[in-house]
Amino acid sequence: MKDFLRLRIGILGGGQLGKMLCQAGSRWGLDLHILDRSPDFPAGQVNPQFTPGDFRNVEDVLRFGRDKDVLTIEIEDVAVEALEQLQSAGVKVYPDPAVLQTIRDKGLQKIFYRDNGFPTAPFRLFAGKEEIREAVQEKRLHLPFVQKTRTAGYDGRGVAVINKEEDLAKLLDAPSVIEDLIPMLREISVVAARDVHGDVLTFPAVEMAFNPHANLVEELLCPASLSQEEEADARDLALRVCNAYGTVGLLAVEMFQLADGTFMVNEVAPRPHNSGHHTIECCDTSQYEQHLRAICGLPLGDTALRRPGVMLNILGAEGHSGPVRYEGWDQCLSVPGVFIHLYGKSETRPFRKMGHVTVTASTLSEAREKADFVRQTLKAVT
Amino acid sequence: MKDFLRLRIGILGGGQLGKMLCQAGSRWGLDLHILDRSPDFPAGQVNPQFTPGDFRNVEDVLRFGRDKDVLTIEIEDVAVEALEQLQSAGVKVYPDPAVLQTIRDKGLQKIFYRDNGFPTAPFRLFAGKEEIREAVQEKRLHLPFVQKTRTAGYDGRGVAVINKEEDLAKLLDAPSVIEDLIPMLREISVVAARDVHGDVLTFPAVEMAFNPHANLVEELLCPASLSQEEEADARDLALRVCNAYGTVGLLAVEMFQLADGTFMVNEVAPRPHNSGHHTIECCDTSQYEQHLRAICGLPLGDTALRRPGVMLNILGAEGHSGPVRYEGWDQCLSVPGVFIHLYGKSETRPFRKMGHVTVTASTLSEAREKADFVRQTLKAVT
Q1: What mean pLDDT is predicted for residues B185-190?
Q2: What average pLDDT does the segment A83-90 reach?
Q3: Is the ipTM of this complex over 0.85?
Q4: How far is B256 from chain A (nearest CA, A)?
Q5: How far apart are CA B106 and CA B124, in angstroms?
Q6: N or C: where does chain A have the smaller number of CB atoms within 10 Å of the terminal CB?
Q7: Which residues of chain B neighbour A341 with C-beta distances below 8 Å?
Q8: pLDDT at position B182, please?
Q9: Do A342 and B27 touch (CB under 8 A)?
């Protein structure tokens, strides 16, 4: 590969993940370029090399990608056909478009785990909500279950939990995966990274705590409350999934831990992930730097956890829509070990991801106490 | 003051210090604007809000500053008269132009220390080299001594050490401070920060090791090899100097430690400083964030040293001028605890500051060993 500083690197997507990739790359002065609709988006604020365009549009992606050496993504929902063409033309595309094709369709993803012998919740595929209703009526499908639309679902969107008859009104009308509702102990994520030589390193497992109301991760804990053996099992599973995909760059592997202590793969994301934000402050190599190392052909960096961390999202407060301001900022900034990241979005909406906070301390329980203070204090309001 | 996210903040200077200020500010999405000659300069690579212009030119600074709420600097050598006018017009200027006026003139700086009772090397002021020669000939001035030009000296420029007769040929012809050559144990720097309410916090003392050939700091060690009491003395001296100036924002206080363990003030810089680079990785609050907190009216952040650090500059290799490439990159990136910062300068020259590396480890001596490896391995060449 060319000298890494001379690589022209394109990122599809200019949201907060793109922003944090640019921030990581700017320490080395990498030649990063962003494609997204407006330079006012988060990544445009830290990278003047911004091409306005739609990463879902084949022409826009082709035009953007043609003069790049390497292309990557911060979101799965992109014009994969354009990436395939660019790859054929010699551009390195990480993740590989074929991998992306599988991952962005939750149906294909589930089939991949089944075919490769990875533990995953039992599932069936349906074309739309009528088919699902029919199967329920004919008792071919039993409540409770989880519906996930096959594409375009993220941040809790495209998911419906059907516990009882009345919930059937919530069914989404799209090609879907119907999964058994698995009784689980906890939800775990392991961010792995695979380099161009096939070496894989994993970050320590993180434990996710959900806000059931918004169906968004509310708090993320690292280390997770796993035994040493369970931690090793979770990381090994992530490593094997990463190798099975053969992807280059990050792969965040979300999994469920069952009552017997074993893990099932839920789903993966071949890009920086919410469950890796804390690596900026808690590890020597952040997930963002790790992704850039991988796609530039550089050696992977150290993933050891230097100190415990709690990550919480800053979500737009309920009942507030419009130009944002933040309450409680000064109080939170006065607490040692509180790292606030705002994504530079000028408008807030209820539950919109406006930023995140990583809280560190010498123990996880101390970090959780400080995180509680931050959650009660810092508000994105109008 | 306005909500800090709505403050329009201008920075005079778009070099590496400006770049690192922008990187720190981008985590919160601060509205930072840069004034410097070209957006190709380091800060322009991380901040699209770049106004081309000359920060030494009164008109350019006035034009740039008029619509800002707060102005700050990354270099002292700016059009102070413009800053004074802008301050009168209601723009907050940190550091205060009056403080900047004193600090940028090493003669006025020395007088300030003398008048305020701070220990500093004995000195006299001269108009130029002929006056100095005359004083030497007439035995009113005795060798050895140090000549420092009163203005525009930085990174070892504008300094001549006159040990013997022949060295007189090296005298610089400019208004100068002539200082006694002080026999010292070591050179120390303490970065202090003062907020708008007058509260001051200091970072732990750092010890500077010079490359005598280039007259540039070669390696910086934190913690410094001081006793607890000496460390407290050094930080107290920095705090008192910071309070005496009454500046807002950072003040890096360079000092000499004498054989008896006491400290003398050498000179100060009212901005981010080479001796604070390691705070990015070794403290929870970097010097850059601290400066932004101070000038935005936010509370100062925690300055505790989380782990030992060695900082070394990446200087252009001797005998190489032209488009830069870096040797030894992969080997250095494979060492845990090695953080490389490149400033994004496309051309190298002998001894040009191309970047810096912070090396951390659980002990300082381990960090120094790794730093030695980096120094021998990482080269900025053509």
Answers
A1: 96
A2: 98
A3: yes
A4: 31
A5: 11
A6: N
A7: 27-28
A8: 87
A9: yes
